[in-house]
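Researcher: Good morning. I'm working through a list of sequences from a screen, and I'd like to move beyond sequence-only analysis. For each chain I'm collecting a predicted structure so we can compare shapes side by side. This is the next one on the list. No need for commentary yet; just the structure.
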Amino acid sequence: MTTSPPTQETILRAHAEHQFAEELAALAEVDTRTRPPNWKLSPWATAKYLLGGKLDNGFEVSPKYIGRQRLVEIAIATLATDRALLLLGVPGTAKTWMSEHLAAAISGDSTLLIQGTAGTSEEAIRYGWNYAFLLSKGPSMEALVPSPLMNAMAQGKLARVEELTRMPAEVQDTLITVLSEKVLPIPELGAEVQAQKGFNVIATANDRDKGVNDLSSALKRRFNTVVLPLPDTADEEVDIVQRRVADLGRALELPAEAPALDEVRRVVTIFRELRGGVTEDGKTKVKSPSSTLSTAEAISVVSSGLALAAHFGSGRLTARDLAAGIAGAIVKDPVQDKVVWLEYLETVVKDREGWQDIYQACMAVSG
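Model: Good morning. Structure tokens for this chain:
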């Protein structure tokens, strides 16, 4: 069977450097500021790429991160030094999103990625071996299989380490020599890989999930930590959800209308009130569930609702399409969270003007 090679149009999720190639090229064209060694863009242009805005030539750069400008500037400035960057925050605060776009803008390559899990081994960070070559020729550079980190060092690019605190502590500490000495020893060959200018590491971590392994103090000292908060305002969060849902809808080719602003705002309002433990007007205290109710989960709820509306509804997002997704995001503990959710529906949603449809839809799937 023959298959056509994939194109950017057929790929479900293109890498940032391909998806936003036009914006990166436009920024490079007007970027006259000083660039650190091996950087594709200057720190100023990198910040403009992440935060968005209009260039002097009229080209409009879309925002990739909606939040505090100073945090973005600190993150970029860190990568221009010899310290690694740790993006810390609760799940759903765009740590991975920012990491990918920083790598795309600075190195032109966001693919040098190590995914941290409980099963991540030292080989995933350092290097492995091609055992066929190893058995036939013994230890040699030909038999060595470089890790993304080793490739980043050799090429002077950024390496990304996702969910650093999910790795076992002894695996985390493999990074200490690399971050402090900028060298990766290969004792089997009596050799080493020295980092080229432009190399650095962006790691992400959160302290809310179960199975977290705290970083050693020695490793923490090698990182500059930037804490990414949840969106400050409801308007900011609504904007983020709308933009990401629109991107996902185009990628998945959903035959549905763009979600109405009112529906997105209702999802965001529910999440923010349960997350904060108080209603939007500050008059009623509510219990918070065990779930994080992040912006990423709000995006997932609206996207799932769009899929339901497109394939099993009228094509227009309604409260009925959102209800199951909202309940699923909130009720992680089937006993305690369900009590919190039903109490919120009865004390807040039921009597809120214009919310009868979402109250009835949520009760239908949760009651």
